[in-house]
Design goal:
The chain is α+β, with helices and mostly antiparallel strands and 989 residues long. Among the domains are: 137 residues, Phox-like domain (PX Domain, 2-Layer Sandwich); 186 residues, Endonuclease, Chain A, CATH 3.30.870; 355 residues, no CATH class. The protein is 28% helix and 21% strand. It is built from 28 helices and 36 strands. Strand 26, helix 20 and strand 27 form a beta-alpha-beta unit. The protein is elongated. 47% of the residues are buried. Keywords: Hydrolase, Lipid degradation, Lipid metabolism, Repeat.
Length: 989
């Protein structure tokens, strides 16, 4: 049997899911007074005194698991009854005249009678539209809703410089629209019915959110002007009752939303609690990303600087055309996304729209992905005809707004690697780096990436290994990742200005009614993404903390120094503790008794007897023996202290990378061009500065670049200054304090130093060396000027790998391990992981867009700091020790204490040994012996590949010393005869 007209119109509202509960009553004036704000002036109160004395009755409406409050006067109830009587589908109630027989002088009795009246209405199978609007029930049922109702909206409100558009705005008319206010945003549609609820716009609350109301501020008694980062809304209430109710809802939203104010470090994100898992290198990261995507039930959100649809997330790959394919073949990214999209999962991808000069080819990525399924949507930004100087650099994957991945790894070619950092694929069929993924951007950069089946490198040319750090997050901080995605997506869609409007996602997509999967612990709030051009509208469900203002997050935050962007122009002089210790949960760890320090043998160093240049080799042999002898002497001297240290060492401790109780906070670099916000956010730099200043024992940094303000103009970020300040403080107080920095031996740009195509490589080195060791204002020079030995407080390392090329023409080869990490660890207590480099592009906020998360584990583990028992945060400690074990190839007992003199001398000596052997065998650059480019020819002529078999056994780990004197007699800055000279200098910093 066909549905009747009425049933068709209202079939989406299931009256069985509606309930009403009485709450309280008050006068309108008392209701306004509960906001603790001086809402209206005396003139308004005098004018509307009679109305302000009217009673307001509050009820809780529950529909489909979501609850909200409505506030109604007796006049509104009387109007409801009149509307019901006029409805074509009107039916009689037993208490039809209920609103006329109320005991007006007994508000408690009145509340009960009104409650019974509403219960009668909702108990019927069919509820008229006027009653649904009275109860604020529409086809858009969002959790944590504050208010629904009609308002008149004035057209325009976007900031445009065009005079004609300004004139249009003045002449704009008001149109009736249906508004929904939640704790997160304001959105509006044409009406609450199904055929009118295509969402026109959703505006999220942020720190720029504010509103004006009243005749004095707006010129009219019933006008409200609301300001967002992206635009302003000019609204006019249909009557005084809805005007007051709308203002009440706005004030309540400001109180409850975590995004209407800035938080610690000037971040948009509050302090949260999350479960975190770290990743070193890409193999397990991409494996987990793949598994999480395949489990998606609702949405997948991706942002990337570069995305390769043909990248395999799991390796190895069987490349034989007719061979038995292994299951990893099906983990190609485009195929994985197609699998979930075909199940109805909405896949949304935001890509940096790289100019044609770069190899990213976002056009190919968009075409390839969108061809896989209609449920995959890809946006590129920016869309300027003239290429922008800056990029969208954040890397993020969020699945079902429940689990998030972020860090330094794009979903693209060249990123997958293991801790072994192999230079070649040793298996002919089961390949780890198939086709174009076997790459080396130092030798030959990517070109025509859509032709992914070709190989870029020649025979015996090694790939460039890729070292990176990433993190998986589950819990409250995923809210903020989703929030960032919403803001980014909305801004991009608005900027496109298309006129076409598409259908809103329906409830069978688990989006429309704020569906909450039963296996999710957090409450989810739906947000809707506005296309800005009335196009595709994406609805989101975001976890929200109930009773937010009473939550622990806010209590923690109240004790912190809230730093706005304007406050942090220099490192703070008085530092405070980063986060107060919230719990006393410790892992009990077994101590190994009578652990003895490893004795060094007295065997003859026969393995350093070299052939060839005897004079040089004798010098090398003597130097290496001296380094090893120093280690022996130190172990004898420090043996007792080492034994004491090892009493607290737990050799059986497993290095876990997964922690359940972490205090987390998302930070970002974001500005007008990237997300449309008015006030530039540079909370990543703010966090760096404060964390460095508050460090008590040591700082560990891994980064792709190291360019800071000590390089002079035009560099502005203050990371290097903060390091200098903290080291000087340690020196003055005679504190044991150490900074360890790992970054690439060379920037990852194509070109040899003696070739004309290396201008970009050299200018990057120019600013890095000015920051670290030369130019007069560098870190090392400033420390020396104050009588401080820099090596006592700060060391710079890099990574390198060696290997024999495959048969038949097997030869020894070496290549740098490209460090792409963006990591800061402080005191084995706090970790900062993200996409931001140490340069102005990443840290100034209004340049490259970035994301980073700060993690402090509440679970403590027994550790050692400067020879003393120490309670370290599990997440930071296990990540730092795992990195030390990989880089230096040392056991856990030797890296547990980052301030151990034994570790410092042993790791430094081995890094020096590695550096010298690389020079002896490969004569590879960069090296301190190459003072100027003309030295390079003679330097590389002294390689001895024939000694590889003899010396390779003495390599240990991947760490080498960064050559601070490399090309120290050369001007590495751009020159007028180079085309890059005419690009803005700040694009390189």
């Amino acid at each position: 049997m066909k549905d009747s007209f009425f049933q068709k119109k209202f079939r989406d509202i299931d009256s069985r899911k509606i309930d009403v509960q009485p709450i309280d009553y008050s006068t309108v004036k008392q209701l306004i007074g509960s906001l603790n704000n001086k809402v209206f002036d005396q003139q308004f109160e005098n004018k509307y005194q009679t109305y302000l004395d009217d009673r307001v009755f509050q009820f809780k409406v529950i529909y489909d698991g979501q609850g909200w409050e409505i506030r109604r006067t007796l006049k509104q109830f009387e109007q409801l009854e009149r509307d019901m009587a006029q409805n074509i589908f009107y039916y009689y109630f037993q208490e039809k005249q209920i609103t006329k027989s109320l005991e007006r002088d007994n508000p408690k009795t009145t509340l009960i009678l009104l409650y019974k009246y509403l219960k009668i209405i909702v108990s019927n199978e069919i509820i008229p539209q006027c009653a649904l609007e009275f109860l604020e029930i529409s086809c858009i049922n969002l959790p944590f809703k504050m208010k629904e109702g009609y308002m008149e909206k004035k057209s325009g409100g976007r900031s445009k410089k065009d005079c004609w558009l300004k004139l249009q705005s003045k002449l704009a008319q008001y149109k009736k629209r249906y508004f929904i206010i939640t704790q997160q945003s304001i959105l509006y549609v044409k009406g609450p019915e199904r055929d009118k609820c295509k969402i026109i716009e959703c505006l999220s609350f942020d720190s720029d959110f504010s509103f004006l109301f009243g005749k004095k501020e707006t010129g009219e008694d019933n006008k409200i002007i609301i300001f967002f980062s992206q635009r302003k809304l000019i609204l006019r209430a249909l009557n005084l009752t809805s005007y007051i109710d709308f203002i009440f809802a706005l004030f309540k939203s400001i109180k409850l939303s975590p995004y209407t104010k800035l938080h610690r470090y000037g971040s948009f994100s509050p302090i949260r609690t999350s479960q975190c898992k770290w990743y070193i290198d890409g193999d397990q990261y991409f494996n987990d990303v793949c598994d999480a995507i395949l489990k998606a039930k609702d949405t997948v959100y991706i942002t990337d600087w570069w995305l390769s649809p043909e990248m395999y997330l799991k390796r190895p790959i069987d490349v034989r055309e007719y061979a038995q394919l292994n299951e990893n073949v099906y983990t190609r990214l485009d195929n994985v996304l197609k699998i979930v999209a075909d199940k109805g999962v909405q896949v949304l991808v935001l890509l940096y729209n790289a100019p044609f000069l770069l190899y990213n080819d976002p056009k190919h990525s968009k075409l390839q992905l969108e061809s896989m399924s209609s449920n995959i949507k890809v946006l590129k930004h920016p869309n300027n005809k003239i290429p922008d100087l800056y990029s969208h650099h954040e890397k993020m994957v969020v699945i079902d707004q429940h689990i998030g991945f972020m860090g330094g790894l794009d979903l693209c070619f060249g990123r997958w690697d293991t801790s072994k950092h192999l230079l070649f694929d040793v298996h002919p069929f089961e390949q780890l780096w198939p086709q174009i993924d076997f790459s080396n951007s130092r030798v030959r950069d990517f070109v025509e990436v859509k032709n992914y089946q070709k190989t870029l490198l020649k025979e015996n040319e090694p790939r460039m290994p890729w070292h990176d750090i990433a993190i998986q997050i589950q819990g409250d901080s995923v809210v903020d990742l989703s929030r960032h995605f919403v803001q980014y997506w909305n801004f991009v869609m608005r900027s496109k200005q298309k006129k076409k409007q598409q259908e809103l996602l329906h409830s069978n997509d688990l989006k429309m009614e704020g569906f909450v999967p039963s296996n999710q612990q957090n409450f989810l709030e739906s947000n809707v993404i506005y296309t800005g051009r009335k196009e595709s509208l994406i609805q989101m469900k975001q976890p929200i903390l109930i009773d937010y203002m009473k939550s622990q997050d806010v209590q923690i935050e109240m004790n912190q120094t809230l730093l706005s962007n304007k406050q942090i122009e220099a490192p703070p002089s008085n530092t405070q503790q980063f986060i107060q210790q919230q719990y006393k949960n410790y892992y009990g760890l077994q101590a190994k008794e009578n652990q003895q320090i490893e004795e060094d043998d007295d065997e003859e160093d026969h393995y350093y007897i070299l052939e060839g240049n005897k004079q040089y080799k004798e010098k090398l042999k003597t130097k290496i023996k001296t380094d090893k002898q120093k280690l022996k002497e130190y172990k004898n001297i420090e043996g007792i202290q080492a034994h004491i240290n090892l009493e607290f060492f737990i050799p059986s401790m497993e290095i876990y990378n997964n922690s359940q109780k972490c205090i987390t906070q998302l930070t970002r670099s974001s500005g007008t061009w990237s997300t449309g916000i008015k006030q530039t956010e540079r909370s990543i730099q703010n966090a760096y500065l404060q964390l460095i200043q508050e460090a008590k024992h040591f700082i560990y940094i891994e980064n792709q670049f190291f360019i800071s303000s000590t390089a002079g103009k035009p560099v502005k970020n203050l990371v290097a200054n903060a390091l200098i300040s903290r080291i000087k403080e340690a020196h003055e107080k005679q504190q044991r304090f150490k900074v360890i920095v790992f970054f690439p031996l060379l920037p990852g740009f194509e070109g040899e130093i003696d070739q004309p195509n290396s201008a970009v490589l050299k200018v990057q080195l120019h600013f890095e060396y000015l920051s670290m060791s030369r130019g007069g204002k560098s870190i090392i020079e400033q420390l020396k000027q104050d009588g401080i030995k820099p090596e006592n407080y700060i060391q710079f390392f890099s990574l390198r790998q060696h290997e024999l090329s495959p048969q038949p023409n097997s030869i020894p080869v070496t290549e740098i391990i490209y460090i792409h990490s963006k990591l800061l660890i402080v005191d084995d207590e706090i970790a900062l992981i993200g996409s931001a480099n140490i340069n102005d592009r990443s840290l100034q906020g209004n340049r490259d867009s970035e994301l980073a998360i700060i993690v402090q584990d509440q679970i403590k583990v027994d550790a050692i700091m400067n020879g003393q028992p120490y309670q370290a945060s599990k997440f930071a400690h296990t990540l730092r020790t795992a990195l030390y074990m990989e880089h230096f190839d040392l056991p856990y007992e030797k890296v547990i204490d980052p301030l151990s003199l034994q570790f410092e001398r042993e790791s430094t000596a081995q890094a020096n040994i590695n550096t010298r052997i690389y020079k002896q065998i490969f004569a590879c650059y960069p090296h301190d012996d190459i003072k100027k480019i003309s030295d390079y020819e003679q330097f590389k002529a002294n390689k001895h590949l024939d000694e590889y078999d003899q010396l390779k056994q003495f390599f240990k780990g991947h760490a080498v010393m960064f050559p601070l004197n490399f090309l120290c007699e050369e001007n590495l800055n751009l020159k007028a005869n180079q085309k890059e000279f005419y690009a803005p200098e700040k694009s390189f910093t």
